[in-house]
Amino acid sequence: MSHIVIIGCGTAGLTASATIRKARRDVEVTVISSEHYPAYSRCGLPFFLSGEVGKIESLLAHPLRYYDMMKIKLLLDTEAVDVDTSSKKVICKGAFNSEVKYDKLILATGSKSFVPPIPGRELEGIYNSRTIGDYIKIKQEAEEDKRALIVGGGLVGVEVASCLREVGVEVYLVEALPSLLPTLLDPDMASIVETRLKDAGITIYTNTKVEEFLGDNHISSAKIADKKIDVDFVVMATGMRPEVTLAKKIGVELGERGGISVDSKMRTSVRDVYAAGDCVEAYDPLICRPTLHQLATTAIRQAQVAALNAIGEHILYPGSLGSAVTKVLDLEVGVTGLTMSAAEREGFKVLSAVATGSTRPEYIPGGKKVKVKLTVSAWDGRILGGQIVGGEGVAKEINLLSIAIMKGMSVFELSQAETCYAPCVADVWEPLILAAENGVKKLRR
User: Fold this and answer.
1) 43, 163, 279, 420: which is the annotated catalytic residue?
2) Cβ pair 174, 209 in contact under 8 A
3) Are strands 227-230 and 219-224 parallel, antiparallel or unpaired?
4) Could you name the CATH architecture of 126-236?
5) Which of residues 167 and 362 earns the better pLDDT score?
6) Would you place residue 51 in the very low, low, confident or very high pLDDT band (cuts 50, 70, 90)?
7) Catalytic annotation on 92?
8) Rounded to an integer, what distance in angstroms lies between the CA atom of residue 389 and that of residue 104?
9) Is the dihedral of CA 168, 174, 180, 181 positive or negative?
């Protein structure tokens, strides 16, 4: 019987194991995880702080009995410390302290928190924002203390800041770059989010770095922009790095961004070793080269491809645009493809196509304002990216844009799309189509 071993039980590890089992009942599957919990939704963790997620256990993808039912051998609290690729053995330490033989190996080791070398970072009361354990401690601090510093204004930092503010915590948010959500939104779109956070009482410092954490044993204050701010706890949301310690140890080739390099079948440079998820650099069809898109949806698609190829099928990964969506207080924020600044860095000549509108006509209560911004190739009108802030149903609009971009659609084609209308559900003037029409007008000038 063939034996496939998966290292990591995050989104990619769970998806790979389930995909194998659903496709084949005659394959032995073992999943090795250094964490105490089986697979859970990391994306849902910030919302545990606001109470929107009531119990931390509800974030578990499946109870332990699921793995038994699926005949997946799950080794928790177990670290894969080495792999002998010649004899095909994984050397484990921890709750399971032995070796596991494999025929095919899938690395789904995910990512790890990046913490910049800020003086005082070893003080108590400074937490990462990665695991269930991290968020249990943060929630305990939020219940006892009421002043929090969030370091990092990316997706996780903004989510944590808004969720803590919703439960009455006094929040300071610091971002080193000139605007919030710098990898997702252009500054003009990010300013909408920043204004909403400030209106909610969050103090925001952009283009600013934390100089030092101060305190005896526990954090008591932080130096920011030549000021000393008193805080009770700190949440580090300064980004993630691919967890490639084991991959490097066994000689797997890495890419330019520090993630594992894979081909279109998710195979690594080491024979019979595949990889998927946050640890991987995978193809981006817009820039025509591998990059990091550390998102659950990307991990799922990569893991399905890796798993099916590991059992002998021939499936190709089409690439990822980095589509993402979140909710910040009452604002929905979505993005796919390239921002204007990212497209320009890649050498595209671009123009922006912008439209504002409402999700329902003015005479129907409950409509919400929405702003759409498209990144458009000035050469041929092809849509290269999109950003949407506000409104409702943003995820579905981003999904539509993602399909349009993957199919190479232009603003000319999108502007002709047929949309539906009913006053209680949608305005006749669809903001996404209006943005495309504005792009067409610019191209015709």
Assistant:
1) 43
2) yes
3) antiparallel
4) 3-Layer(bba) Sandwich (3.50)
5) 167
6) very high
7) no
8) 43
9) negative
